[in-house]
Amino acid sequence: MKFYNLLIKYRLPLGFLAIALAVAVNIYAGFWQAFALYFVALVAIVSHYLFGPMRLIQGYMEDGDIDGARKILDSIRFPGLLIKPVRSVYYFLKSNLAMFGQDFDGAESLMKKSLSLGVPMKETEGAAYFQLGTIAMQKSNIRQAEEYIRKAIRAGLPDKENTAAAYLQMCQIFITKREFRAAKDYFRRAKEQKPTTAQVVDQIKQIEKYISRIPG
């Protein structure tokens, strides 16, 4: 796996090196003797631009190395050349990084680009709509937030933590709309997920102090 990651990281310069060697062999020995090197160069260069170094990002994201992940994404100079599923993931991750940096307008634009290309997995679609809903909440656009989070719940979210967070967002939306029965129902669903993430657990505790006192 480590070797494969190194190959992905350096395949573009290796591709150009293969071309240089192929040209030299071609001059001194002939085309067919250089054919294998030409082929290796073609595969390396084309795969770099069609697939990019996206596989390398996973390790950085798992380690919480945001700067490392951003550096890999920034190394993709021509995202328009990526095949559609990979381009969708590229914009999805760029949106996540923009969200991390509190750039809500940028995050929203990038996530819409990702969705327009078609997300490769259903859970990714749910996460994309959930992020758009969160951005809408930050902008106090309650109607849009409700629409997006409903779509996220229908599409499905990747784990119980995200599912609980989505239900809590819906709970807050209905509290704002003063539809307390629906708010309590979504709060109950959030608790049923039994989340363990500190942020989600704290949010449940904060809402519980308030929701127990409202009618409905």
Summed up, what is this model?
The chain is mostly helical and 216 residues long. It has 3 domains: 1-51; 58-158, Alpha Horseshoe (Serine Threonine Protein Phosphatase 5, Tetratricopeptide repeat); 161-216, no CATH class. 80% of the residues lie in helices and 0% in strands.
Explain what this protein looks like in three dimensions.
The protein has helices at residues 2-28, 31-51, 54-62, 66-74, 84-100, 104-117, 122-138, 142-155, 160-176, 180-192, 198-211. By secondary structure, it is mainly alpha-helical. It has three domains: 1-51; 58-158, Tetratricopeptide repeat domain (Serine Threonine Protein Phosphatase 5, Tetratricopeptide repeat), CATH 1.25.40; 161-216, no CATH class. The longest helix has 27 residues, at 2-28. It starts with a helix and ends in a 5-residue tail after the last helix. The mean pLDDT is 90.
